[in-house]
Design goal:
CATH class of one domain: Mainly Beta
CATH topology of one domain: PUA domain-like
Number of helices: 7
Radius of gyration: 37 Å
Structural class: alpha+beta
Strand content: 15-25%
Oligomer: single chain
């Protein structure tokens, strides 16, 4: 079946695809290609050696992959035996080292050019940030490190470290369901009354349990924005800090023993002071004497 791409959509785009919000889910890889989020149906990296990588898909194909949500360690492609009868093409065994070719070279180019890459997570990733089913577009990431290192299978692997760009919707975690602690305490007290035995704290206050319920990005409230001071107050703080710096510098350069004496200045000001003008007119006294 040939999938028709939406009109005006170009998957060879650096950054977001117009009309595809962060958190949008897709049924399969064919739908991702139709929307232009990730063009290849099988390859995990889409890009060129000139422009860099446009997008990658996280599907848990390598044991060296690590997913921490906003920070990812991604393993490149290559070094596998393809075409085996019992496994699919992308599930072959690792039989050789990976080199800087094809998709690996594209991701290395993105690291050199400092260009963002679209990241899509699949349900088979085995991570708490993976969707319950299908695929999900999780926004833009920057490649902050690209190197060849020894992998867990004993071969040289091309490893890339991704860091998620800020000011994007938060990542949904459909694998978590939080339990009411008050209900747990009440159930613990009832069990203690019935059995007469108390259980440990670790049994009742454990980590959140997994759930298969899917969480959509629209259901997650946006993060609270911190109150930012206006430009006028920021300018005043800058002026005050500069004034304090100049004051400290003046005190260090002019200790009390070397500061200029102000007594001489007072004497000069006293000598230059204007004479006092009498308030009573002296001619008035002469007129009184003549009378």
């Amino acid at each position: 079946m040939r999938m028709i791409r939406a009109p005006g959509v170009n998957p060879k785009t650096i950054g977001h695809i117009k009309g595809v919000p962060v958190g949008k889910t897709f049924e399969n890889r064919q739908k991702c290609s139709a929307y232009g989020v990730h063009a290849p149906w099988q390859a995990g990296i889409h890009g060129t050696a000139e422009d860099g990588a446009y997008s990658v898909v996280l599907s848990g194909g390598y044991p060296d992959d690590v997913d921490h949500g906003d920070f990812i360690t991604y393993t490149g492609s290559g070094g596998r035996t393809y075409g085996t009868a019992d496994k699919k093409a992308w599930e072959g065994e690792q039989t050789g080292d990976q080199t800087w070719t094809m998709g690996n070279l594209a991701l290395k180019r993105s690291f050199e050019l400092k260009r963002p890459v679209r990241v899509i997570r699949g349900s088979g990733l085995g991570s708490r940030y993976a969707p319950a089913e299908g695929y999900r577009y999780d926004g833009l990431y920057m490649v902050v490190k690209a190197e060849r290192a020894l992998g867990k299978q004993g071969f040289m692997m091309c490893k890339f470290e991704f860091s998620r760009l800020p000011h994007q919707p938060p990542l949904p975690t459909p694998g978590l369901t939080f339990v009411d602690t008050k209900k747990r305490k009440r159930a613990r007290r009832e069990s203690e009354d019935e059995d007469g035995s108390s259980s440990s704290e670790e049994e009742w206050f454990s980590e959140p349990v997994a759930s298969s319920s899917n969480v959509h990005v629209e259901d997650i409230p946006p993060p609270r924005q911190r109150s930012r001071a206006g430009p006028q107050s920021a300018l005043m703080r800058k002026v005050q800090s500069k004034a304090i710096t100049h004051m400290r510098r003046f005190k260090l350069e002019n200790p009390p023993a070397k500061r200029p004496v102000t007594k001489a200045l007072k004497t000069e000001s006293d000598s230059a002071r204007c004479p006092l003008v009498p308030l009573v007119d002296p001619n008035l006294k002469e007129e009184i004497d003549s009378d």
